Structures are given as C-alpha cells and as structure tokens.
Predict the structure.
Amino acid sequence: MRKELRRQLTGYAFVSPWLVGFVVFTLYPFLASIYFSLTRYDIVTPPRFVGLANYRFLAHDAVMWHALLLTFEYALVAVPLGIVVGVAIALLLNVEVRGVGIYRTIFYLPSIVPTVASTLVFIWILNPQIGLVNDLLGLVGIVGPAWLKEPGWTFVSLVLMSLWGVGGSIVVYLAALKDIPFFLYEAAVIDGAGVLSRLRHVTLPLLSPVIFFNLVMGVISAFQYFTQAYMLQDQLAPEEATRFYAVYLFERSWRYLDMGYASAMAWVLFLVIVVVTGLIFRTHRRWVHYGS
Amino acid sequence: MDRDLLRPLARRVLSLSFVASIVLLFGFVFAVPGPPARRHPERIPVRFWHMWTAEWKDIVDRIVLRFNESQDRYEVVALSVPPSSNVDAKFLLAVAGGDPPDVMAQWKPIIPTWAESHMLRPLDDLMSPAERQRFFDEAYPVAKKIGVYENRLYGLPIGINVWALYYRPEHMREASLDPDKFPESLEELVLLGAKLDKKNAHGDIVRLGFLPGWFGMYAPVFGGGFYDWSARELTLDSPANLRCLTYLVECRKRLGLDVVTRFESAQNAGASVEWPFISGVFSITLDGQWRVEQLAKYAPGLEYRVAPIPPPAGGKRFAGSSDGNFMVVPVTAKRPDGAWEFIKFWSGLSDPERAAAFHTWGGWLPALSSVAKSKTYQDYLARYPSFRVFVDLLSSDNLAAPAPIPYQVFLADRITATDQAAMRGLVTPTDALRDLVRQVDEERQRRRVLHYGEP
C-alpha cells in the first residue's frame, strides 16, 4: 500500500509544475473572477462588493447586446464556412498527384503565420485605393468596396480573413481522410456509387467525428474572437463591425479599468459558450457517425 | 568498417547533436540582451518609463543622459515601452504589484481615471510652494488644465500638442490663387480647398484640397466643446457642437461620403517621411507642431506655410483642442523625490534655458512660457518661423484641454465613435449627439450606483 502511495506521489511530483501552473494561473483566476464579477474593482484599490449590480447593468447594456449579436453572427457564418472550405481543400489535397506534399505545405503554412502579421498584410491587401484585391477586381471592371471602412464589408473581410488560418483544420481532416478504409470505397463502387454518392455516404459520415470536433473548437474560438477585430479598430474600422464581445470585454477591463464589469461579462460569455456547445452536443447523435 | 559497429556510433552522434541543438536553442533564447548596465551604480536609481520609439527614443535617451550628467545623487534608468505593447496594462499591473516605475511619461487621457483609482501621486505633494507657484504662473492656459483632476496636479506637462493648418503655396499658385491671402474664415477656406481638389478618371480623389474633419478638434473652433470648466459640467450636445458636426458632415457630403472614405483609407498615418502632405496628396491639412521639425529633416526643400484654423461665422479664433505629453508618478513609486527632480529638469521648472534645448530636439512646444522665452528657444523659432504659429496658439484661452472627468477615456472613445458614425452617414448629426448624451448619461448612472468616486 505504501509502495503504491509512493508511486502515486512520485507521479504527482512529476506533473506538479503543470498542476501548480494550472491552479495558480487558471483555476484561481477562474474562481476569483466569480467574486470580482460581484464587485467594483480596478486592480489597484481593493474590490468593493456591489452584489448583482454588474449583471443588472449588463442586461441593459446595448453595446454588450450588439457585441454579443455580432459575435453570434460571426460564429454562425465563419465557423461553417471554415469547415466547408477546410473539408473541400482537404479532399483536394487527399488526391495522390505529383507534388501533393508541396501543396499540403503551402496550404498549411498560413496557419502558422502570427495573426498580427497576417492582419497587417490584409489591411494593405484590402485597401480600397491601392490594395491588391480591388486592383484585381478593377481588371474585370468591378469597383471594389472600401473593405475595412464600411460595416457590412468589414464583417465580410473578417470572415474572409478567418479562412486564412484554415490550414490547421485541413491537417486534421487529411489525417481523418487517410483513416477511412479503402474497402468501403471499393464496396461503394461495386454497388454503383458515383463520386458524389461516395462523398455523401462514405467520406462525410466517416469524417463527421472530426467535423464535430472542429465545429465545437471553432465555435468556442469564434466566441472569443479578438485579435483581428481589435487591430482593425485601431485602424478606425467601423466600430459596429469590429466591436466583438471579447473586444468590448477588453475595452471595459483594461481601458476603463472596470474589472468587475468585465468579469461579469466573462461569466456571461462562459455561460453562452456552455449553452451553445451543449446544444451542439445534443445534436451530434443525429449526424456524427463513429466507424467502430 | 562493420555496419553493426557504426550504428551505435551514429546513434550516439545523433543524440549528442540533438542535445547540443537544444542547448544552443536555449542559449540563443536566453542570450537576448538585457537592460544596459548602469553607468552610475553608486547613485539612487530612478526608473523611468516612456512610450517613445525610434528617432524619438534617441531624443529621450539624450535628455536622460544630460540629466544623469547633471546629477551626483540620482541616475535615471529609462525604458521605452511602446504604446502598441499594451503599456497601460503593464503600468497598472506594476502599480498593483508594488513595483512600478518611479516616473512615467504619458500622453493618453488617463489622468482622471488613474487618479480616481488612487494610482497616481499628486505632484503637489512633491512640489515646494515656490515650485507650485512658479508652475501656475508660467504655464500656458491649456498646460494648467491637462494634468489636473479635482484641483490637484497629477501630471506635469513636458510638451504640449497643438494643431494648425499646413498648406502648399505652389498648389495655390497652380490654381491661380494667392498664397499670401490665406482665408479669414472656415467657409472661405473650404471653398478655396475645393478649387485644389484633383480626381482621377474613376472619380477617386488623388489630391485633396481641404476637408475639415475631426469633430473633437473643430467643436471648440465653432465655439463649442465638451466641457465647461467654470460650471464644471459636460456640454456634449450644445448648439455649437451640433452646428460643428453638421457643417463637417455637409463638407464631406459635397465630395461624396464614399469617395472620401476610400481616399482616407488609402492614406497612411505618415508618422514621418511618409506623411502624405510631403508627397502632395494634401494641399491643406491639419497637423501638429512636430511636423515642422520632420519637414526640415525629410523634405528640406519643400515650400509650405502654417496658419491657425480660421473661425467659421460665430466661431472662435485660435481655437481647437489640445493635449500633451506629461509626467506622472505612481503612488507606490519608491523614489518619488528623484522622479520629481527629473520632471523639473525636463519641464524647465529648474532651468528653462537648459530645458529649451530638449524641446527643440523633439520639436516640442513647452508647457512653460519661460522656456518659450529663453534664448535657445527663440533662436529655434528664428530658424523655424513656421513654429511660431504654434507657440502663438499656446497663449490662447480658446484651446480646449480634455475634460477632467474620471471616465475621460470612455468619453474620448464615445466622441470618436460619434464622429465616425456621423461622418459615414450612418446617423444624422442630431441623432449622433443624442446617442452620445444617452451613452454618457448611462455611464454616469452606472458609476453612481456602483459608488465610483468613493473609496
């Protein structure tokens, strides 16, 4: 028994650096923010208890509702689009043609470019008068819009920019595609299935666990969408198209020193993510197929 | 040699190479140069944070060097923390952690918010009565307001920012206009600017004559503004403000909202040599005094002139908004006395003649009239006559300082958002101002309920 206990303690000793880091830098702030959300707190002076006042004001905060709606819209458009594009490119990269390794690398590379760097490049590419996109549109006689200055087009630009990082999920889809047994395709061909039927009845069902994983992760990260929108705000892009929930949370916390209000916002966001993720989980039995 | 004998050797070489590369990688990561060694370790260190980078950082380093040469008690150790690196959060965490810099140079609208949060030490505590008297006797009207909150001085200005119109005489001559007759009213100026506009075949602006913009700057020119210093209250939707915003939007509409938006987004901020005025994209444009020094440096042969914004009908002369660079001392600073010595040195409170040299290095407008009157500064003005327009503006009572309210950052953000929404034609100027008042009222109500302003 003592030997077993010693073995366990040794194990915990080895993982203790992570455990300590988790407790100090994740668990404690996570729990502390519950208390801070019930206070008025500016980091320097001690928190002052205000009960549920932050939540009450939050319920009537038009800016917060607008930011939440914008974030929902973004999640609703960018996440499915990212999945469709990711799966489509993965299917193309799964075709064994000469130099496919190079193509795979090319599609993966953008996802490891730092977001700040790629956003800066996009700011120039989407410049209405001297940007590459409008220059190309001009060649076919289209006058391109002011991409990052008009609210509607700013939203479109942000969604398009999100596709830049789709390489990470392509790798996961590719791995899953490689895992689909070939005999299933053979059987489908013998049964007379064409390309589309094979895609619909073999590939997509067997890819569905990975799509489900990417959907959940995509939704969670969409609700925390920040960097690109924050950078565009700095470029005086329209506020109504760039003030996502996380951007407004950051504004309230570090710009206005409203840590209590920001903590309440963070908890509301947490609950929203839990509910949305829960809803996705509830639907997964209907469309996710596990091969085993 | 036998291949079986070679295999363990190869494995060992591979392992050693792997370990060596890890060691090298760590060595490289940790070999990042630390702060430079102190020159005077026997003295009391005064840690100074500022936000200047590139050519500006060099000037700050020169001032710090001068201070350290003048001292035998303190040594200022400067650290450049760029504004893009979320410097405010770093400062707040340093104050909360009890290890902040002793003094920091700032230019953002933070004084009331930070002072209300008890993060800043009132400089009145560090000043002698004579120094305080001297500051309020010699400081320009706007400089007296920039660092004040609740009648206490939390930030001592070391440079004031004032905006005026830069214009290109040759563009006016091209259009058969006399550059010696600069318009006396804003309305005349807008008409003149229209004659200087140039568009390409697609209708895009390639040269903008003149377009007034920036609600925050022009509101005082129209006799408005956002704060009444005598009544100590906000004046957000005053008739003058509405007149201003309406006029600015109408000017934009004449050119086409979409056309202006496209033109503006094609221009970069132009921090130095890439300023679009130099390349001739603007004929008349509003900018700060620091451009005089930059024009001398990057476009020495360029012909240009500077003039104050002419008032519209019923408006005010020599008006506009103004802000500045100022020094703050955190409440938990360990060497506040050393910090104050440095602030006096830079601002000119201890020696205006000496401080005048620093101001000329950066093309800064002094907060104190004694610095502006010094021989060094007067020589500088003789060398750069355009600069005198800005110095003259400094004496004006019509320059507005940021409102000294604890939600100053919030208000500044809302004014910018109001400006943007009206300029893009999303709302009418009347509705934009109504929204501004509503948002600010809601914020004030929230602060009242949450007991802001109470310890």
User: Anything to note?
Assistant: The two ends of chain A are 39 Å apart (CA to CA). Strands of chain A lie at 39-40, 48-49. Chain A is about 75% helix and 0% strand.
